[in-house]
Amino acid sequence: MILIDSGSTHNMMSVSFAQKIGLPLIPIKPCSVWLPNNEPSFITHRVLRVPVNIQGVNTEADFEVWDGVRYEVILGMAWLKEVDAWIACRGAVHGKLQNGKSFSIKGKRSLPSIPTLSHL
Fold first, then answer.
1. How many other C-beta atoms are found inside a 10 Å radius of the C-beta of residue 61?
2. In this structure, what are the phi and psi dihedrals at residue 115, rounded to the nearest 5 degrees?
């Protein structure tokens, strides 16, 4: 599963996913990161120039590799900046590739509707 997350400064990939698709892990000086749940995690590897294809939009990105379990890939501000993207409130990401071609990516899931109570 891929998460496009404007709250993440870097692109992240789980070590299990990187190994599963056979990417060469490049060792880096270990650094700590804080997860959204306020727990620390460590990054010890990186992968470079990984092809990314989402709904026919082809790009590439560098990723910090971590021991994430919920998402295989997180595309953060590094990727969003690279593709000059903006996020629409109705669940789409719009951007422009280096070749000038514009794109839109829409999420596959939507939240269930929540009953609303009102009193007049």
1. 20
2. -60, 140
C-alpha torsion 71→77→83→86, nearest 10: 100
Residue 11: what pLDDT?
Answer: 95
Name residue, tokens 């992968």: 47
Rg (CA), the chain: 17
pTM for the full predicted model: 0.79
Q: Would you say 70 and 12 are in contact if contact means Cβ atoms under 8 Å apart?
A: no
Model confidence over 39-73: pLDDT tens digits? 788 899 999 999 999 888 899 999 999 887 678 99
Q: If DSSP codes are grouped into helix, strand and coil, which group holds residue 39?
A: coil
Q: Is residue 95 within 8 Å of residue 103, measured between CB atoms? A: yes
Residue ranges in the chain whose pLDDT is less than 50: 110-111, 113-120
State the DSSP H helix or E strand holding residue 53, giving kind and residue range, or none if neither.
strand 40-54
Structural domain boundaries in the chain: 2-106
Q: For domain 2-106, give the fold.
A: Cathepsin D, subunit A; domain 1 (2.40.70)
